[in-house]
Amino acid sequence: MQEQPTTQGRDQFQSKLGFIFAAAGSAVGLGNIWRFPYLAGKNGGGAFVLFYLICVIVIGFGLMLAEFVIGRNTQLSSVDAFKKLDKRFTFVGAMGVLAAFVIMGYYPVVGGWSVAYVFKSILGQFSTDSAVMGEVFGALATGISQPILWTAVYLIANIVIVAKGISGGIEKASLVMMPTLFVLLVILVIRSLTLPNAIEGLKYLFVPDFSKLTGDVMLAALGQAFFSLSLGMGCMITYSSYLSKKENLVQNAIVVPTMDTSVALLSGMVIIPATVSFGFDLGQGPGLVFVTVPAIFATMGPVLGRIFGIIFFLLLTLAALSSSLSLLEVVVSYLIDNRGWERKKAVAGSSIVLFIICIAASLSMGAWSGFTIMGMNIFDFLDWFANNLLLPIGGIFITLYVGWFMGKDKVKAEVTNDGTVKFAIFEVWMFLCRIVIPAIIAVVLLSGIGII
Ligand code: TRP
Fold first, then answer.
1. pLDDT tens-digit map of 404-422
2. CATH no. for residue 269?
3. To 10 degrees, the CA torsion angle through 329, 334, 335, 341?
4. Closest by alpha carbon to 174, among 351, 350, 345, 22?
5. Which residues contact 250 (CB under 8 A, 6 or more apart)?
6. Whole-angstrom distance, CA of residue 227 vs CA of residue 104
7. Which domain holds residue 222?
């Protein structure tokens, strides 16, 4: 984090942009570019996207603001923030640590694929033929030593950065990376939309077919909103604990989701139209971005395609890294603050366990695909368990806490900086936290897992 010691002895972000980029760096990652397009493709397109957008606007904004209020008020990371505010809610922080742990049990596998594709771009193995691209991805993902090796490379990058506590460098780098990523995505949208038949893909992405909006599709959209915005597990509580008392929380809770959602929608507009144009399978799941995007590069010719491929997968890797750092840091800071471990020991200890889980997640794409939990392989189960269960449940308790238990005056003072910032819809937001958000999450959760 970009922070300097202050007179109160706690680090703070020195500039508004510093915080926004750190928070956006956590939010923008594989969730936007890898996960959003493949879920949209798999879950029927328009209706999924529309429900996702509703979740971002109604729940994302409200919950992010709630996390900011808790974090900045206590100036503590999530577990200790709840411990200080109300001991009964400490379990919410603990659940967040578990969520970070579960997500880090498969996120580095995808990060590893992304690193591998930087090299595949250099070698120029890309084509617009679905059989070839499927083969290239399949050979990587279902392999044994290769994907584990790339996962290790990716995980080691995380370990080195978190062990040294030098994430400031990464966050500074995202000041350059994020705008570059954005520009690159805009160029790719233009390339994708000028492919034959691309308009059909655009329709698929944006014209809702409500017959597709089943309980599990809604839960997938809700889970995606949580995952993409890094919500429901205290990540934003921790980040905002470094935020100065002068910052406008409301503004931040609008800017960060807007940036995050723009990247997701742009990625969707790159990947879905191109997938349709090439005649690839929209519902293929986690391989989608790794099959379709290289095919787009193949249409650009050997030289330009290669250059674009290298830049794209490099940026995807770095965007993933700035997200997974925030996840690993949640686990590590818990071990340090709560268990009294040294930073190096905490990083090493948690990484060994995470690596073992990642190996299982990676093998479950191939050799171990026969082993399933609730009908899912290990990879999909970890993803489902964290995003469609732990994060939404965390979200319910965080908003309920701010809505009912924190005390209206305290919340109002925090969110308006002791009355110096106007927040016209304060009452509306409180109502969202008290009733609307927890109720929507609960209903979607219960219908998604088939209870109602
Ligand atoms: N939001 C990141 C992404 O889209 C992943 C992530 C980082 C995350 N921190 C998180 C997800 C905390 C859930 C909770 O790739």
1. 999 999 999 999 999 999 9
2. 1.10.4160
3. 90
4. 22
5. 65, 415, 421, 423
6. 12
7. 33-448
CA of 26 relative to ligand 1 center, distance in Å:
6
Asked, for residue 25, whether it belongs to a domain, the answer is no
CB burial class (10 A; 0-12, 13-18, 19+) of residue 8?
exposed
Number of domains in the chain: 1
Compute the distance from residue 387 Cα to the ligand 1 centre, in Å. 10
Domain annotation covers residue 370: yes
Is 21 domain-assigned? no
Q: How far apart are the first and last CA of the chain?
A: 43
pLDDT per residue as tens digits for the range 123-170? 988 999 989 999 999 999 999 999 999 999 999 999 988 887 766 666
Please indicate, yes or no, if residue 24 is contained in any of the structural domains: no
For ligand 1, atom 14: residue with the closest CA: 230
The length of the chain is: 452
CB atoms within 10 A of CB 429: 25
- Tens digit of pLDDT for each residue in 35-50? 999 999 999 999 999 9
Residue 226 Cα to ligand 1 middle (Å): 8
- 58-89 CB burial, b ≥16 within 10 A, e <16: ebbbbbbbbbbbbbbbbbbbbbbbbbebeeeb
Helix (H) or strand (E) holding 3: strand 3-4
Cα 228 to middle of ligand 1, angstroms: 6
| Residues framing ligand 1 (Cβ under 6 A) | 26-27, 29-32, 103, 227-228, 230, 233, 235, 323, 326-327
